[in-house]
Design brief:
The protein is an alpha/beta fold and 425 residues long. It is built from 13 helices and 22 strands. β2 and β3 form a beta hairpin. 50% of the residues are buried. The structure holds zinc ion (2 copies). InterPro entries: Beta_Casp, MBL, Metallo-B-lactamas, RibonucZ/Hydroxyglut_hydro, RMMBL.
């Protein structure tokens, strides 16, 4: 028996498209896949992670439901039938996300609804702290603090304890408790995301104060505030902040945010403060069709709508209705990828798809659901690994973060994961 080996299939020196294959005893015919995600290029076409022969993949563990962690997974069901492990909310949201992905990208996708269904049918739910045996390899998952259901995956192979962060957050927010590091304990090897490995987020309380102050100002002068937000987690986080402070004007919620909120409420043990989310869901106006949508933007109020980068969906519709009036405001609260409509609105002040200026006030606030450098280092200090593998990070960020990790004096070895590389552990 050889030592365990990992192969990076995606997410090496890039943010997203995460996929790591673990070969327990360096047997080429056995593997456990941690995530299998997809990214999008500048033209918004999907870029899939590399794959391993499906017949040699025993199991796929999905850390959470974002497409950059699951969008390649159905490919393993074109010719294979691995077992799949995920928490219940991850599995339920995976269905929404993958079906939506096929609706928008079916033309470019090598898999179809049949494979998505096979993946979901093969999924066994795992709970935080539960231990599962996969042919002699012990799998357990812990709360990663990133979005509801997100898992920090731990795999025990012959006494070597390997941790995989998935996407992780170490601060408390309205929606999420921080990653449960105490439950994870000590690791031998840490495979870590480092999206924000070289920077620090401003304190969350300050972002919340700014959000509420801008809303108050705009609402006071009779304007409408549009908050484009990701359907998973960011939309609900904003709903909860508003529910706690009663903005005094109608709040509308539109897009896939509604269905995801319902999944969260069904899985309330995965949420920090389910009572507050329920309050928001009950009190706010849930937009259910064009009649509601046409009404929502016509009076002073607040609209929380997907998509978060104005890629399409109701947020783009609302921007076109309210963006031309300086009395209104657009507050972006999600990551804005270079080349996205949202980034263009922030940087050039132009309406998507036209040369018309945006006259509404535009703001971009940091409500990131990823740990920053400080949080990531906290994970290293808490898990004390002898080896750290950095993935899900731009190359220059990964390099800066690697130096910081070495400075802790904890791991002997820090490796920046590279796509298609194999790393002995
Ligand atoms: Zn990710
Ligand atoms: Zn994520």
């Amino acid at each position: 028996m050889g030592a365990p080996v990992i192969r990076i299939l995606g997410g090496g020196k890039e943010v997203g498209r995460m996929s790591v294959l673990l070969r327990p005893d360096n047997n080429e015919k056995r593997g456990i896949l941690l995530d299998a995600g997809v990214n999008f290029d500048e033209e918004d076409r999907p870029v899939f992670a590399a794959t391993y022969p499906p017949k040699y993949v025993d199991a796929i563990v999905m850390s959470h439901a974002h497409l950059d962690h699951i969008g390649t997974a159905p490919m393993y069901f074109i010719s294979g039938s691995p077992k799949v492990y995920a928490t219940r909310p991850t599995a339920q949201m995976a269905k929404l996300m993958l079906e939506d992905f096929l609706k928008l990208n079916g033309y470019y996708s090598p898999y179809e609804h049949r494979e998505v269904k096979a993946l979901l049918d093969a999924t066994e739910y795992v709970r935080y702290g539960q231990r599962i045996d996969i042919d002699g390899v012990e799998l357990s998952v812990y709360s990663a603090g990133h979005i509801p259901g997100s898992a920090f995956i731990v795999v025990d192979v012959d006494g070597t304890r390997i941790g995989f962060t998935g996407d992780v957050n170490t601060i408390e927010t309205k929606l999420m408790k921080p990653a449960h590091l105490d439950a994870i304990g000590k690791l031998d090897v840490l495979i870590t995301e480092a999206t924000y490995g070289s920077s620090l987020h401003p304190p969350r309380a300050r972002a919340e104060e700014r959000l509420l102050a801008i809303i108050e100002e705009v609402v006071d002068r009779g304007g409408t505030v549009l908050i484009p937000a990701f359907s998973i987690a960011r939309g609900q986080e904003i709903m909860m902040i508003l529910a706690e402070h009663d903005p005094g004007v109608p709040v509308y919620v539109d897009g896939m945010i509604r269905k995801v909120t319902e999944i969260f409420l069904e899985n309330s043990e995965y949420i920090n403060n389910p009572g507050l989310l329920r309050k928001a869901y009950n009190e706010f106006n849930i937009v259910r069709g064009w009649r509601d949508r046409n009404r929502a933007w016509k009076h002073p109020g607040i609209i929380i709508a997907s998509a978060g980068m104005l890629k399409g969906g109701p947020s783009l519709y609302y921007l076109k209705r309210i963006g031309g009036n300086p009395r209104n405001a657009v507050i972006l609260v999600s990551f804005q990828a270079p080349g996205s409509h949202g980034r263009r609105v922030v940087e050039e002040g132009l309406m998507p798809g036209s040369e018309e200026p945006v006259r509404a006030r535009v703001e971009w606030l940091d409500f990131s659901s990823h740990a920053d450098r400080r949080g990531l280092l906290e994970i290293v200090r808490s898990t004390k690994p002898r080896k750290v593998v950095i993935i899900h990070s731009e190359e220059d960020v990964a390099q800066k973060y690697a130096e910081r990790v070495l400075e802790t004096g904890i791991p002997e070895n820090v490796v920046i994961g590279e796509n298609n590389a194999e790393i002995e552990i």
